[in-house]
Amino acid sequence: DGLPWRDDGTYLITGGTGGLGLIFAREILARAKDSRLLLVGRSALDATVRSKVSDLGVRASYHQVDVTDRASLSAFFAEIDRDHGGLNGIIHGAGVLRDSFLLKKSEGDIDQVLAPKVDGLVNLDELSSGMALDFMVAFSSLSGVLGNVGQGGYAMANGFMDGYMRWRSGRRPGRWPRLRCR
Predict the structure, then answer these.
(1) Pick from 25, 29, 175: which is nearest to 93 by CA?
(2) How many angstroms separate the CA atoms of 142 and 7, rounded?
């Protein structure tokens, strides 16, 4: 059917308990028999997160990992390699919004918006470089191309993702699609 996920595959979804992450989690679980999902987020495993993951069933697990923290992500990738023999695909949907005009934003606000989409993407790519991924999807936004009032930092972050994924295309095995969502 042309979908990139396979039966018995292992998939990492950043922003895994957000709206986009859950849409893909349900889709993979419905179409790929015996697949395993590693949902990643910065949030602690509270009742809300636990409920979302529980609704997906036993083939999904949640891991509190900040993709911008290279050391923590590297340790998590070592666990993935040990426990699952690597990954078949990565869906990078993590992101932070801090909407306001650039003149009103602090450097910290801009850093918080850029970090998951810039540092997170680079960390995921570099740390998975030894894995034979079937695909890596990085979700960007039309704001990276068109801009959006109050989302200058978000537009910069998404513009970086688009450029990075173009740069990566053909340099790693598997497909490297760029999908834009609003």
Answers:
(1) 25
(2) 32
- pTM assigned to the model: 0.83
Model pLDDT for residues 32-48, shown as the tens digit of each residue: 999 999 999 988 889 99
- Closest by CA to 163, choosing from 125, 132, 108, is 125
The structure tokens listed for 141 are: 């936004």
- Determine how β-strand 89-92 pairs with β-strand 60-64: unpaired
Token pair recorded at residue 30: 């419905």
* DSSP-assigned letter for residue 37: E
Phi and psi torsions of 112, nearest 5° = -65, -35
**CA 61, 67, 72, 74 torsion: positive or negative?**
positive
Residue 142 tokens read as 């039309």
Which stretches of the chain drop beneath a pLDDT of 70?
Answer: 1, 95-108, 110, 141-152, 173-182
What gap in Å lies between CA 25 and CA 59, rounded to an integer?
A: 10
H helix count then E strand count, the chain: 7, 6
165, 151 in Cβ contact below 8 A? no
Residue type at 3?
L
